[in-house]
Each structure stands twice: as structure tokens, then as C-alpha cells.
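not sure who needs this but someone in the group chat was asking about Glycerol-3-phosphate dehydrogenase/oxidase from Ilyomonas limi so here u go. i didnt clean anything up, its just raw.
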Amino acid sequence: MLRDQMLTQLQQTPQWDIVIIGGGATGLGCAVDAASRGFKTLLVEQHDFAKGTSSRSTKLVHGGVRYLAQGNIKLVKEALRERAYLLRNAPHVTSTMAFVVPVYSWWDKWFYGIGLKMYQLLAGKLSLGKTKWLNKRKTLQELPGINDEKLKGGILYYDGQFDDARLAIDLAKTAIQQGATAINYCKAQSFIKQDNRITAVVIKDEINNNAYTVKAKTFINATGVFADAVMQMDEPHKDNLIAPSQGIHVVVDRNFFSGNNALMIPKTDDGRVLFAVPWHNKVILGTTDTPVKHISIEPKPLEEEIGFILHHANRYLTKTITRKEIRSVFVGLRPLIKKGGNATTSLLSRDHTILVSKSRLITVSGGKWTTYRKMAEDVIDKAIQIAQLPQKTCITRQLSIQASRIEAATNSKDFLHAGFHYTAQDIQYFVTEEMAIKVEDVLARRTRILFLNATIASTVAPIVAQQMANLLQRDEQWVQDEITTFTQLANQYRLADA
Ligand SMILES: Cc1cc2nc3c(=O)[nH]c(=O)nc-3n(C[C@H](O)[C@H](O)[C@H](O)COP(=O)(O)OP(=O)(O)OC[C@H]3O[C@@H](n4cnc5c(N)ncnc54)[C@H](O)[C@@H]3O)c2cc1C
């Protein structure tokens, strides 16, 4: 089992160059970068890789049209560059997608048309295709199922799409291939200091309950919305840096929105952007931007957020979506950085921030999935400087990301479910080669069944639990506990009246 190998490496290494805390997009990107520069790298994740925000995004590899409207050209240009690198380096989990903005006034047609043309031009040679003005007939062809009342036409532009959690797992494998050790279900609990400098971190293996003291030359806090908790392990009285903002997504069947293109609504009632994006044969609708006080690893959707998304989707689609038709609701927290005085989270910085504490803990937060590679490059450059590591150049712009070896099964008898063509062999691969430890790891992140249809995920959970128990040598009690825990989780993704 790969995880056992990782634990052995953890115990046999007397000192690491770099220890990374957090196995989301940011931490995994740092691990790939550090290992590929030749540094002795350890990454620890308290739950499963991408259990946090990094499995709960809108799945867009994008420059951020919204940031263009806010005038943040630098951020958009950087993200457009990163979009191109990601599409090139991970073609197995990314794709180009056409987005259409329906317009209902001539002013909007020009306003959004010019903005989205600029978006194309800002990408320069890395553009994914030309932005086009569409007449009403063509808009209805490109967006079947859209409301045509007062429709004047549309704008079509191109952006990227991806499978976030799959990319995260593949980044973990790439980091390992490059020589890193990366372990899930290992939580950083406290720091050990000498002469006011952090010299070690105590981590706990949540599966075996073992604790390890891990020495390193430098430590990176890449824990997203949990960054304050880790910074306060270093400086207990430190003020909070993060202003978390919640975003929910609703998943429905394709018959509500059957075309291959995505719908982009540039301005909802409260001035946000809303998407309807085809994904794995379903449609993702979202997202919201709700400031929250409480940080949870499994945040819950608010009733008003669900109402907000259905209200706007139903305004644009001809077939009405009701709560009963929702297949899954998933919720993520944005790790936005506080900036004094801003009233709403939609105006807070989406840029990333790197901070170094007196005891030399490097904290990275903010940013977005699309720019994870650039964030990692900046962080590892900083780590080299702080820990006086040998200067080695970043190579991740050109580095291919490892694809998983899931075979396309052909015999429907072998499928886990008629709608999801995974087999027993795939589950074995997830457990032995991808460190899946719990039923949720298979159904939420190695496959995306929980995010696509929470009811089906509950139905197949007992089969997955039994097979995992055989592979991991767990008893019947483990199987029952896993089924109970997973069913409770799936109930949160499924609305009570759905
Ligand atoms: C609703 C929503 C939609 C989004 N859509 C997009 C999009 O379409 N495109 C895009 O580019 N970006 C998008 N983003 C942004 C993007 O998802 C995030 O910027 C990114 O996932 C953040 O990754 P992260 O690694 O910083 O945080 P996380 O993914 O939260 O990872 C942090 C990890 O640290 C772990 N951790 C915490 N404490 C400890 C500890 N003590 N020890 C060990 N591990 C610990 C956590 O368990 C967690 O897994 C979206 C964000 C949201 C919320």
C-alpha cells in the first residue's frame, strides 16, 4: 500500500528540507514544485487530499471575467497564463469549454461583448478561441433550453474546465513521483521551537493514532481557511488573517440544460456572476458568496443560498428546477484575505498572500485553483530564501501531471452502478495506489459520485465499504461504521425533500 510506504519514509527521514502542512491545491502545488527542484519534501494533510475547498470549486480553469470587470488586469493576465499551462500539463483532467452570456439589451450586448473580447485579447497567443457576438437564433442554438423572452443575442467566449479533486490526487502522485512524501490523514498539531525558530512539527496519524516529531529546515502553512489555526499554533495571540466566504453549488440532470456549452450570467440581483456548467454528464449551478464566521471542514448550505441559485437559474432556463430535482449540493469556503474596511467578501482580495512569521513559518493563502502553480513557485522561492536552501530553478511550467490508470470498463456487469462505470479494479487502484482510506475518499474525490448524485453514492456505499475492508483488512464493524458515517455525509449533500 502506498500510504504504508509513505509512513515508512516519514519515519526514516531524520530531517526534511521542506514540510508542507495542507493537502489542497496550494499545498500539493508546493509539494510538486519543491520535490521537482530536488528538495527533500514532506506534505501532511489532516483529512484526505482535497477534502477542503479544493474539491468544491466551480471547476473552471479561468482568468476570472469578474476580476476584469473590477479592473484587476494583472490578476487576469497571470491567471490566463496559468490556464494555458494547466491545460497543457494536465490534459487528462482539463478541457476547453465555450461559455455563452445571453443578453437582453443592446447595451449589454456591446458592454459584455467588448469586455469578453478584451478577455480573449489579454490571453494573447494563449487564447483558447475567439470571442463572438451571436444573434438571437444562434444564441438559442448554442444554449438550448434558455428562455428566449426579450433575448437580443449572446456573446460566446472560451475558458477552461477541470475535475478539481482528480487533479489534486494526480498532483499528489506527481509530487511522489518527483521524490516527495505525501500522506493523508496526518494532522499538524504543534510546533517545536529552538531560539525562537520552528525546528520541528508534531503530527498525528489519525488512522493509527501514532504521533511523530518531524524536523525540517522550513515549514509551509498551506491550510486554506484553516491558516489562522496553524499560525496560532506558532503565535497564539495572532489576529485572524482569513475572512472566509462560503460558496455553494447545486447539481442537476442534463435535461434542464442539455447543450455542450456553459451559461454565464454576468450579473445576478446582488451583482455576482452565476454559472451553469455541464460536468460529468450533469450540470453544476453556482455559486454564492456568503461571509461566514464559523470554519468547518464540511460547511452546510444555507436555505437562502439554495433559493438564490434556483431563482436565478429558473429565470434563464425554460424548464423549472425544483428542490426535488437537485442531485447534490456541495459547499466550499474561500480563503479570502482580510483587507481593512471592505464591507463585502466579493470585494476582498483573490490574489495570494505570503507571510513569514518571526519564527519563520511561511503562510500562503488566497489565490485560486487556476493559479496554484504560480502560488507554489512563489512560495518555494520564498522558502529557499528563508531556509537558505540551494538556489534551484522552478520547472513546473513544463512538468506533466501524472494521470491515473483507471481503465475504461466495457462490460456493464462490472460497473459499480449503471450511471457510473467504475469497477472493482478501479477501487483496488484507489486504495493501493491513491491512498483511499475511507469510503468517502472513493465516492467523493477518487470518483465524484457524491458530488454528482448523493443518493446513488449512498446506494453504492455498502459495496465500496466491503471491498475496501477486504483490501485494507478491516472487520465487519469497520464496514458498518463506514456505511453509517458515509450515509450521514451523503444526507447533507442531498436535500431532505429531494
Ligand atoms: C465556491 C468556490 C468556487 C471556486 N471556484 C473556483 C474555480 O472555478 N476556479 C478556480 O480557479 N478557483 C476556484 N475557487 C478557489 C479555489 O477552490 C481555492 O482557492 C483553492 O481550492 C484553495 O486551495 P487551498 O489548498 O489553499 O485550500 P484547501 O483546499 O482548503 O486546502 C487546505 C487543506 O489543509 C488541510 N489542513 C488544515 N489544517 C491542517 C493541519 N493542522 N494539518 C494538516 N492539514 C491541515 C485541510 O484539511 C485542507 O485539505 C473556488 C472557491 C470556492 C469556495
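also The mean pLDDT is 94. if thats useful
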